[in-house]
Design brief:
Elements lengths: L2 H9 L2 H9 L7 H11 L19 E5 L4 H12 L16 E2 L2 E2 L4 E7 L4 H11 L2 E11 L6 E8 L1 H13 L12 E7 L15 E4 L1 E5 L5 E5 L17 E7 L1 H12 L12 H13 L5 H18 L2 H24 L3 E7 L22 E3 L5 E3 L1 H19 L4 H4 E7 L13 E7 L1 H7 L8 H12 L15 E5 L5 H6 L4 E3 L4 E4 L10 H41 L4 H39 L13 H11 L2 H12 L9 H7 L5
Parallel strand pairs: 16-17
Antiparallel strand pairs: 1-4, 1-9, 2-3, 5-6, 5-8, 6-7, 9-10, 11-12, 13-14, 15-16, 15-18, 18-19
Helix pairs in contact: 1-3, 2-3, 5-6, 7-8, 8-10, 9-10, 16-17, 16-18, 17-18, 17-19
């Protein structure tokens, strides 16, 4: 990728790029040419929820664009050697097939499907995916009377199983008696062949996602969790929902540009800059409202204006909204600047990190654009999270076949919100089928399921949870949900992503919730007292570690006073241990406050979210100053036992001496 392409990609969303090649007015402009090159190189195709050119078809199809880069490179090299006079343009689709050359590489899974079948595909893909595919040989389809098709035949037992089950379960027009997975190279004139020396290397790779290509030409990505989803332990991922309005990335960009430069050239079809800014601003401020609720809130606002200034002003405001803002709003929805996103009717406004201002997007290293313009966990990230856990407990805990007894995983934490930072946690809550775990791991069986839970949690708690997600600085924290407490996870009312179904149970939103000043004063005061005590104990512990280090040096130098020095070393070690015990008590107190807040606390702000309980706010204030990291590390080193001599160096590092 050239520097110009990289800069272009950084300044344009995927939708922007596809719109440039879709529109005949822009496809031949300099920007359109760069966009086209990015698509041809597969750079855009590998990113967010890709859309092909908007063409209406009779039916949809199921496919995967998850093709190995090595295979794509080989196919492109083959395409370069094809004589242009041998190519047929009868199958051309702009951006898809051009001048007989296949531009976007994929493997068709099932042809002739309906559009509204994402859940059905997901269910089957979760059963078998990810699946392994390998290249076989160069071959041809010659049935079409107008052209022949050069293809790479592929082999995949898993993909064949998915095809067979989908064909059996779904309404479709696939008339082929046998499934032949393949990747198209090019469309050739009848009787033409590739060069005799052309071949394809044997390459294997895994397919982690499918796409539904709808009859409208839209691609909807469907990723697998790589573990089975069984209905016996399923959780509600389709709550009572309403179509709330939100700015898409495209809309947010337009809104920010207008705020920076109100005199900018407006997009085609928009003439009234005031009405446009008002519509975008009102959507941004009311992202939990439906269209009807938005109108009602404007009416309430205008009524307020009437009482404040006069009836005429309120009437004018209502007329202005109905006649000018409302039509612009409808046009913004049609043009993709505003989306009507299903959200739950209760507690729809969420903001986990309550102390920071929201960002424009979720972390792009973790999330990509999915269905309804909501963020979707990147398949590669999801697989890392799952494999990381499965591999660790198998290797170090001796657990067999975790993929069969881990029911689901739920993603929470600040990285599931717009208020994350570079080191925010990724919290993964794991649902276990304890009966299946016992059947497959008889050596792990205990009479009390809570003991089984503790054994599993202890396998990874102080070790696995120290690592970061590869490619980021975000620490991964895994939690196995206690037996019988699965529903409490849902009741916590914080942003939550269901990794098994790739849906948001509670989606993220950007609206900032105002915290009452009086309640915040109480939280700040209590947090300050706790932090003062922690700082005092940390200072005493640091002083003790320094004295211990000096006494160790003195012991080596002065054999004469060795017995006295040894006594002082023991006393100093006890003094350090006393301070560490105090710090562990503070850690336990903070955790207890937070746990009680989530179980029994009432939010101090106008929301149902337990994130806004007093105990959690106090916890977040302490965490903000990175004191929780030190407390966790001290707890990990000494647990609940007295300080050992060989642990002092590790404690020294935790207190900051090793930095």
């Amino acid at each position: 990728m050239t520097a110009a392409e990289a800069k272009f990609l950084n300044n344009h969303t995927t939708d922007d790029i596809w719109n440039l090649v879709r529109d005949n007015a822009t496809i031949n402009t300099p920007e359109g040419q760069i966009a086209r090159k990015l698509i041809e190189k597969g750079i855009v195709a590998s990113r967010l929820n890709m859309k092909k050119i908007a063409v209406d078809y009779e039916t949809g199809s199921i496919q995967t664009s998850d093709v190995s880069k090595k295979v794509i490179e080989q196919i492109k090299n083959i395409q370069k050697g094809i004589d242009k006079d041998d190519l047929s343009d009868l199958a051309d689709e702009p951006g898809w097939v051009e001048h007989g050359i296949q531009k976007l590489f994929h493997i068709t899974v099932l042809f002739g499907t309906d559009d509204d079948i994402v859940d059905e595909i997901k269910k089957v893909f979760d059963k078998y995916g990810p699946v392994e595919v390998s290249t076989d040989k160069i071959d041809y389809f010659t049935e079409n009377p107008q052209y022949d098709v050069a293809i790479v035949r592929c082999k995949s037992k898993g993909l064949t199983k998915i095809h067979n089950e989908l064909k059996k379960e779904l309404k479709n027009k696939d008339s082929h008696p046998k499934y032949n997975p393949h990747i198209t190279i090019a469309y050739l004139k009848k009787g033409k062949k590739l060069d005799k020396d052309v071949s394809i290397k044997d390459i294997s790779w895994k397919i982690n996602s499918l796409e539904l290509s709808t009859s409208k030409g839209k691609l909807e990505k469907i990723a697998t969790m790589a573990i089975p989803i069984r209905t016996s332990l399923d959780y509600p991922h389709s709550w009572n929902k309403k179509a709330a309005i939100q700015l898409t990335q495209k809309g947010l960009l337009l809104y920010e540009q207008l705020l920076d430069n109100p005199d900018m050239q407006l997009p085609p079809g928009y003439e009234n800059v005031k009405a446009l800014v008002t519509a975008l601003d009102w959507v941004e401020q009311n992202s939990d409202a439906t269209i009807n609720e938005l109108s009602r809130r404007w009416q309430e606002y205008s009524n307020y204006q009437s009482g404040l200034i006069g009836n005429d002003v309120g009437k004018e405001e209502r007329t202005y909204f109905d006649s000018q803002v409302q039509p612009v709003l409808q046009q913004l929805i049609e043009d993709g600047y505003v989306t009507q996103t299903p959200t739950e009717k209760t507690a729809s406004t969420k903001k986990s990190n309550i102390l920071d201002a929201p960002r424009a997007t979720l972390d792009p290293a973790i999330w990509e654009r999915g269905k309804d313009d909501l963020p979707m966990l990147k398949p590669a990230v999801k697989i890392k999270i799952i494999k990381n856990f499965f591999g660790y407990i198998s290797k170090f805990g001796g657990y067999i076949k975790p993929e069969e007894w881990v029911k689901n995983m739920f993603y929470t934490g600040s990285t599931a919100t717009y208020t994350y930072n570079d080191t925010s946690d990724i919290d993964i809550h794991i649902i276990v089928d304890w009966i299946d775990l016992a059947k497959l791991n008889p050596d792990k069986v205990k009479k009390d399921p809570l003991e089984m839970w503790k054994d599993l949690q202890d396998t990874f708690w102080w070790t696995l949870n120290k690592i970061s997600l590869p490619g980021t600085k975000h620490p991964l924290t895994y939690f196995v949900v206690r037996p019988g407490e699965e529903k409490k996870l849902i009741e916590a009312q914080e942003e939550m992503y269901d990794m098994g179904h790739d849906v948001w149970l509670i989606p993220p939103a950007k609206q900032v919730i105002a915290l009452p000043e009086e309640a915040m004063s109480i939280a700040v005061e209590e947090a300050s007292e706790i932090m003062s005590r922690i700082e005092e104990h940390l200072a005493n512990a640091k002083k003790g570690v320094m004295e211990y280090d000096m006494l160790t040096i003195l012991e080596k130098l002065s054999k004469e006073n060795a017995p006295l020095v040894l006594l002082k070393l023991r006393d100093t070690q006890k003094a350090i241990d006393k301070e560490l015990d105090a710090l562990k008590d503070e850690y336990a107190l903070l955790k207890k406050k937070r746990q009680e807040a989530f179980e029994q606390g009432k939010p101090i702000a106008p929301t149902n979210s337990k994130n806004y309980t007093l105990g959690n706010i106090i916890f977040k204030l302490v965490e903000r100053y990175k004191l929780m990291n030190v407390l966790r590390e001290i707890k990990r080193i000494t647990d609940s036992k007295p300080l050992e001599t060989d642990q002092i160096d590790e404690v020294s590092d935790a207190l900051g001496f090793g930095e």
